[in-house]
C-alpha cells in the first residue's frame, strides 16, 4: 500500500487489496473525507491545506499516515 500527495490530491495505491476504506482527518481531528476504495489506484481530490491524518482500513488491518497538503 502506498499513500502520498500530488498537488491537491491524495493518491492511494492498493496493490490488489479489495474493499478498503479511507478516512481523512484534519489537524483538529475532524473527519473531512470518508470513502470506500475498490480500485488498485485511487485519486482523492482534497480541498484542504495543512496537516492531515489518513487512516486506511482493510479487513482487520489499519494503516495510519500523516501527510501535508500544500497548494
Could you describe the 3D structure shown?
With 71 residues, the protein is an all-beta fold. The chain is 0% helix and 66% strand. The chain contains no helices and seven strands. The protein has strands spanning 2-6, 9-13, 20-26, 31-37, 41-45, 50-58, 61-69. It has a four-stranded antiparallel sheet, with no helix packed on it. The chain has a three-stranded antiparallel sheet with strand order 1-2-5, with no helix packed on it. The radius of gyration is 11 Å and the shape is globular. It starts with a strand and ends with a strand.
Could you say which overall geometry the principal axes of the C-alpha atoms support? globular
Rg on CA atoms, Å: 11 Å
SS field, number of helical segments: 0
Strand order of the largest sheet: 4-3-6-7
Helix content: under 10%
Unreliable residue runs: none
User: What is the element string, with H for helices and E for strands?
Assistant: EEEEEEE
Main beta sheet: 4 strands, antiparallel
Distance between the termini: 25 Å
* Strand portion: over 45%
Q: Tell me the total number of β-strands.
A: 7
Judged by helices, strands and strand pairing, the structural class is mainly beta
Whole-number mean pLDDT: 91
Amino acid at each position: 500500500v502506498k499513500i502520498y500527495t500530488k498537488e491537491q490530491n491524495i493518491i492511494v495505491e492498493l496493490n490488489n487489496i479489495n474493499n478498503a476504506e479511507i478516512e481523512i482527518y484534519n489537524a483538529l481531528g475532524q473527519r473531512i473525507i470518508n470513502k470506500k476504495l475498490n480500485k488498485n489506484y485511487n485519486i482523492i481530490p482534497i480541498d484542504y491545506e495543512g496537516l492531515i491524518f489518513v487512516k486506511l482500513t482493510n479487513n482487520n488491518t489499519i494503516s495510519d499516515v500523516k501527510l501535508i497538503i500544500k497548494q
